[in-house]
Amino acid sequence: MVNEALKGFFIDCKGCSAKIDKNELKANLHVCPKCDHHLYMPVDERFFWLFDEGWEEIFKDVGSKDFLQFRDKKGYSDRLQKLYGKGMSGDSFRCALGEIGGKKVIAGVNDFRFMGGSLGSAAGEKIVRAFEMGLDLQAPVILFHSSGGARMQESTASLMQMARTSTAVSQYKKSCNRPYISVMCNPTTGGVSASYAFLGDINLAEPEALICFAGPRVIEQTIGQSLPEGFQRAEYLLAHGMLDDVSPRSSLISLIKKALSFF
Asked: What does the alpha-carbon distance between residue 4 and residue 17 come to, in Å, rounded to a whole number?
């Protein structure tokens, strides 16, 4: 039993329920040292882990707007202001420019803490700009996905980002002799998995990541049948030819560098 005064220094592993010291978890790339479950990795730490040394965040001026005046239990504007009040910025998707293995690279990471990493107009705009910059610089683009899908508070404008981002990927591939590396983290679902996430030249995933359009419960209720063990998890998709590799976070950076070395 962890002392109440020490609760803020520990986090519960969602894989084995063990209590892990936050500093130990950070040093282990947010992978549980007991069961190897891959927990959420904060965006800044992902960038520091990814790039050789130093990086510059780009497109920071792009943010969400409540152009529909959308309300459910709480107004969309109120939700956004609450997140900004917590010091969060960059919306649900952040981009950075840096070097990996001495090669200039543009990287983008979903921030799942920001409305579940949902794909809204701001995130879509940043993704489009990332591929446009990659084309201008003739640089590889690496995207890390962790999203619940389209952002319902933006309605059709959110769904349109599926087409915009997919078109940006197509134009990049057509005119740039550099790779788009797609890395699917837990979870990669909905409109993100159904658009730009699976369009990589190289499609990778972290272990046990949930990767799907509709979730397992929705499918089971629709077809009235139980699903196979591990269905929609990264390892299942790899076994069925939908991914190029599933790599632990500890060796993922080496795999990315190896892929980049061919270009």
From this structure: 17
